[in-house]
TrEMBL record:
<protein>
    <submittedName>
        <fullName>AlpA family transcriptional regulator</fullName>
    </submittedName>
</protein>
<dbReference type="Pfam" id="PF05930">
    <property type="entry name" value="Phage_AlpA"/>
</dbReference>
<dbReference type="InterPro" id="IPR052931">
    <property type="entry name" value="Prophage_regulatory_activator"/>
</dbReference>
<dbReference type="InterPro" id="IPR010260">
    <property type="entry name" value="AlpA"/>
</dbReference>
């Protein structure tokens, strides 16, 4: 059975990637790093699977496009 995708916070993303906060937000703006998702009124996080995918191959990472099933 597949485990649900965890949401991780900025501190964890910084530790896993080795990037600075400003570099992460610059890369998000460029479209070369996973965007955060809103988890509360004042909080945001990232899907752990997206960060893992970026860490595995940062140069080739691209956002996963939603599949249009034609309905």
């Amino acid at each position: 059975m597949r485990q649900p995708d965890r949401i991780i916070r900025l501190r964890t993303v910084l530790a896993r990637t080795g990037l600075s906060r400003s570099t992460i937000y610059r890369k998000i703006a460029e479209g070369t790093f996973p965007a955060q998702i809103k988890i509360s009124a004042n909080g945001a996080g990232w899907h752990e699977s997206e960060i893992d995918r970026w860490v595995a191959n940062p140069l080739a990472w691209r956002p996963v496009e939603e599949v249009d099933d034609g309905r």
